[in-house]
Amino acid sequence: MNGSRIAAVGHYQPAKVLTNEDLAGMVDTSDEWIRSRVGIRTRHVAGPDEPVDELAAHAAAKALAAAGLTPGDIDLVLVATSTAVDRSPNMAARVAARLGVPSPAAMDVNVVCAGFTHALATADHAVRAGAATRALVIGADKMTDVTDWTDRTTCVLVGDGAGAAVVEASDEGGIGPVLWGSVPEMGHAVRIEGTPARFAQEGQSVYRWATTQLPPIARKACERAGLAPQDLAGVVLHQANLRIIEPLAEKIGAVNAVVARDVTESGNTSAASIPLAFSKLVERGEIRSGDPVLLFGFGGNLSYAGQVVRCP
Q1: What angle do CA 96, 288, 231 make, to 5 degrees?
Q2: Taking a C-beta distance cutoff of 8 angstroms, is the pair 245, 256 a contact?
Q3: Contacts of 73 (CB under 8 A, 6+ apart)
Q4: Do domains 3-170 and 179-310 have the same CATH topology?
Q5: How far is CA 274 from CA 32, 171, 186, in A?
Q6: Domain limits of the chain?
Q7: Average pLDDT for residues 289-302, to the nearest whole number?
Q8: Is residue 199 over pLDDT 90?
């Protein structure tokens, strides 16, 4: 075995749905204002009794079932999140305990909105190096816990959820080389900080960076996989804002690809957004087994990470 692949994916969202009309009753906003600026219609909101590890465990269990595996088949658990309340035990250990995964390596990865693609690359590296045989890679965030519900510029953006992938060794690589990096001197543009922690961002700076600086980086991720953008069957970008997703996807040049637009119904779920949107495309049959799909995360720290994967 000299490669790794995604064997299966899964996702989970809380039952409660918050509409734009609901938000209009909470802050000075409207459905038209929100749709015209960010393209979001609804978002899912977890209750106080639904912690991050519960969201993550539901998504992971779905991915395991889809792969035909049991918790005992997993020896590495990676959870990408930036909304863990406690420092220890970490989310990965809590998810492993919920699922009954015996003695895995269990690590959290905090790269905010680019967390899942960083974690996926880490799992790929671990499997190809022989340090793991099968990994659960999960993106899960409860953004509503760190939201200022009086700030109409940010509270309209966020949602809660989780997405997961099972990564395993394979004869041929199904996960392309990662292209990752950051612009740390601009890290202040996306923040979750303070006591209590609150999400804030400099929207215009993030928009300009994402739509002007990231397209060539995403194209280079395709090149590292030996593909041209027009060869892609799917593009799953971090679901930040429809007004970022659409121009970024266009500038990448993936003219034949299905572009995930889950942000319209789920909002910005941070590290959960890519696996959540990817799993939905797979579930709906919009991309088929073996199809090349670009996963590209970006956001907090002004970090980015992308790779081309083969659809499970």
Answers
A1: 110
A2: no
A3: 64, 134
A4: yes
A5: 26, 26, 23
A6: 3-170, 179-310
A7: 97
A8: yes
Q: Specify the pTM.
A: 0.97
* Residue 162 confidence class, pLDDT cut points 50, 70, 90: very high
Contact 10, 279 (CB under 8 A): yes
The span from the CA of 75 to the CA of 105, in Å, is: 6
Task: For residues 230 and 35, give the distance between their C-alpha atoms in angstroms, rounded to a whole number.
Answer: 29
pLDDT band at 110 (very low <50, low <70, confident <90, very high): very high
Whether 125 is catalytic? no
The active-site residue out of 11, 90, 238, 301 is 238
- Decide if 112 contacts 300 (C-beta within 8 A): yes
Q: Which of 67, 42, 44 is nearest to 55 (CA)?
A: 44
CATH no., domain 3-170? 3.40.47.10
Structural domain 179-310, CATH architecture: 3-Layer(aba) Sandwich (3.40)
- What pLDDT shows up at residue 172? 86
Among residues 113, 155, 222, 311, the one annotated as catalytic is 113
- pLDDT average, residue stretch 75-97: 97
90 in catalytic set:
no
Helices (H), ranges, the chain = 20-24, 31-38, 52-67, 91-99, 115-128, 152-155, 203-208, 214-224, 242-252, 263-266, 273-283
- 159, 153 contact by CB (below 8 A): no
Percent of the chain past pLDDT 90, that is, above it, reads 98
Q: CB burial class (10 A; 0-12, 13-18, 19+) of residue 237?
A: buried
The residues, ordered by sequence, that sit 6+ positions from 204 with a Cβ below 8 Å of its Cβ are: none
Mean pLDDT for 223-245 is 97
Residues 187/301, Cβ–Cβ less than 8 Å: yes
Number of H helices and number of E strands within the chain?
Answer: 11, 14
- State residue 1's pLDDT score: 61
User: Is residue 11 among the annotated active site residues?
Assistant: no
